From TrEMBL:
Its main location: membrane. PANTHER family: AQUAPORIN NIP1-1-RELATED, AQUAPORIN NIP2-1. SUPFAM superfamilies: Aquaporin-like (SSF81338). PROSITE patterns: MIP, PROKAR_LIPOPROTEIN. It is a multi-pass membrane protein. Belongs to the MIP/aquaporin (TC 1.A.8) family. GO terms for molecular function: channel activity. This is Aquaporin Z. The gene is aqpZ. Keywords: Membrane, Transmembrane, Transmembrane helix, Transport. GO terms for cellular component: membrane. It comes from the Bacteria. It comes from Lacipirellula limnantheis. It is found in: Membrane. The chain crosses the membrane at residues 7-28, 34-52, 79-107, 113-133, 145-168, 188-209.
């Protein structure tokens, strides 16, 4: 059972990061602010629908942490999920670099640390909060909109703060983007710290707002 979950998480994260790499690298300068967010949000949406019934469709260490804090994910499966997600993301980065070989990629500029930390924290919180409320809450159990809600949250965040932080909202995506030289490598810690903090706080917020939803 766990093996099937981990394979699903690796596949979903793979296609999410592959979409990030290919759309960001291959988009023209004029469309970089439009095409990648649309494609990335859509990729997450379809992968959530594809694998949500098997693994929960997290594809994001921060979301897995939020689900664990909320009590809907076993603590014993937290690290295995993280490993599967990161491996899926790094494999996707390798494939994306192969597919886009020969395309020049400008060196990413280091972000403003304070602004990037706040941006990544807020929209990772929003993403994890939406996941918990649309895909794990009793009040929304059995709905058919959760994948759309989750994908659109990432799309919204990418449009809103992508130019500030890179718009990862996901440590596995950040590591894959770092491997593809799409984000400033010394700054990748911003995404890991802020995103995991956002997921953790989202889990706590859910517990506070839904004390009877165990």
């Amino acid at each position: 059972m766990l093996a099937r979950k981990l394979v699903t998480e690796a596949i979903g994260t793979f296609f999410l990061v592959l979409t990030v790499g290919c759309t960001v690298i291959l988009s023209s300068d004029a469309s970089k602010g439009i095409i990648p967010p649309l494609a990335i949000g859509s990729a997450l949406m379809v992968m959530v629908y594809a694998g949500g019934h098997i693994s929960g469709g997290h594809y994001n260490p921060a979301v897995t942490l939020a689900a664990t804090v909320r009590g809907r994910h076993p603590v014993s499966e937290l690290i295995p999920y993280w490993i599967a997600q990161i491996l899926g993301g790094l494999l996707a980065a390798a494939v994306a670099m192969f597919l886009t070989a020969g395309v020049a990629v400008a060196a990413p500029a280091p972000p403003d640390v304070a602004k990037a930390l706040v941006a990544e924290f807020l929209f990772t919180f929003a993403l994890a909060f939406v996941v918990l409320n649309s895909a794990t809450a009793k009040a929304t159990s059995g709905n058919s909109f959760y994948g759309l809600a989750i994908g659109f949250t990432v799309l919204t965040g990418a449009f809103a703060v992508g130019s500030i932080s890179g718009g990862a909202f996901n440590p596995a995506v950040a590591l894959g983007a770092m491997a593809m030289n799409l984000i400033d490598r010394p700054s990748v810690w911003i995404h890991v710290v802020a995103d995991l903090a956002g997921g953790f706080v989202a889990g706590l917020a859910f517990l506070y707002l839904h004390p009877d939803d165990k």
